[in-house]
Amino acid sequence: MERFFLIVKVQDNSGCFLRPSYKAGWSLGQKSYDKVTRMFQVRVENYYKTDVIFKFEDIFREEDFSLEIPRYVGQVSEKAFKTTTNLLGYCAQFAIAGSIRAWMINEGEIMHFETLEPVSDKGAVQSFVKGRSLVKVKGKESEAIDALSQAIEKYDRHAQAYERRAKVNFIMKNYHDALRDYNKCIAIDNTIPTAYYGKAKIHMLKEEWQDAVSNLEEAIRKSIALQALYWKARRLKAECHIQLKEWPKAAFDLKLFTNRNFEKDNPNRFWLRWAYYHYATVLAETEDYIEAIKYLDKAAHCDQVNDGLTQAGILVQRGLIKQKAGKAGFIKDIKDAAELGDTRAKNLLKTINKQMGK
């Protein structure tokens, strides 16, 4: 089995959160399955006792030699979290493929985070680890594809290898091959959110906005708000709704995105100016001009980054919306944009001056 989440929460009185469903785990051969189930039971009986969150019969599947964990949300002690992740990390080394992510959270703060994956000397494991490490190394795309293809040859149900190979094909603009691999990944394991996210990006390039939305909805459904991917998918989904002129739907996603407090190392923080600007544009489409101006103020005060926007463009938009709202200062915004060299602002300023008899 492939990527999904074990999520646990430290014991306190604040209750549980997040939706249930979906799964995580690893695929195992029969010999590995027999060995790991025996070792799991030995360790629980002799070392861990009652400190393991999951029972043997709840997570091991003899019918396909796998370890599978439903998405779990509960109140547990820190000791139980560490014991369980240590034991599952040990089990992972018997696996061929798969991934589990585990968070312990207290009052909204992440106390512990673990990614549990096979790193053994099995051929399929080593090929996948090598290929994955090369995915984002510029100039190493062909080597990455070769390594990931080897992992697939050694284990033809390696969904993660298909997903990573699709990513490389996307980088190389081999969109047909990328879409093929994303579909193969999903056919093997339909819980991997990055596969849907990747498919959505291909549909967006083709301007197939509704297909992109459908895949982004799956990416959101199969990830959680603790992941950067969840918010990447929210932002792209809003972009698709804008293209489809579905203003309320776009507003919903952008409101969530702009209200999120992203840490400095979160890649979504880069896109806050973009989100403020487009949320304001969407609000203006629904004639909520006052709220739109507030978000354009935020956009205007953000750092200038390579997000496809310009400071002049933001000022022009704010000026036009101020004008529609009957607010003062719209001429100044357009004038400031014109001084920054914006052609649209210069033309608007000429029109305004003519109307005012200047």
The H/E string reads EEHHEEEHEEHHHHHHHHHHHHH
Q: Span from first to last CA? A: 71 Å
Taking all residues together, what is the mean pLDDT? 89
How many individual β-strands?
7
Indicate the low-confidence ranges by residue numbers. Answer: 1-24
Profile the largest sheet.
Answer: 7 strands, mixed
> What is the number of helical segments per DSSP (H or I, 4+ residues)?
16
Radius of gyration: 25 Å
Fraction of residues in helix: 55-70%
Overall description:
By secondary structure, the protein is α/β, with parallel strands linked by helices. The chain has a domain of 113 residues. It has 16 helices and 7 strands. Helix 5 runs antiparallel to helix 6 and helix 11 packs antiparallel against helix 12. It is elongated, with a radius of gyration of 25 Å. The N terminus is likely disordered.
Keywords summarizing the entry:
358 residues; alpha/beta; 7-stranded mixed sheet; 7 strands; 59% helix; disordered N terminus
In short:
By secondary structure, the chain is an alpha/beta fold.
Protein topology:
Layout: E1 4-10, E2 23-27, H1 30-48, H2 56-59, E3 60-61, E4 66-70, E5 75-76, H3 78-92, E6 97-106, E7 109-116, H4 123-134, H5 141-154, H6 159-171, H7 175-188, H8 193-205, H9 209-221, H10 228-243, H11 247-259, H12 272-285, H13 289-300, H14 311-325, H15 330-339, H16 343-355
Parallel strand pairs: 1-5, 1-6
Antiparallel strand pairs: 2-4, 2-6, 3-4, 6-7
Helix pairs in contact: 4-5, 5-6, 6-7, 6-8, 7-8, 8-9, 8-10, 9-10, 10-11, 11-12, 12-13, 13-14, 14-15, 15-16
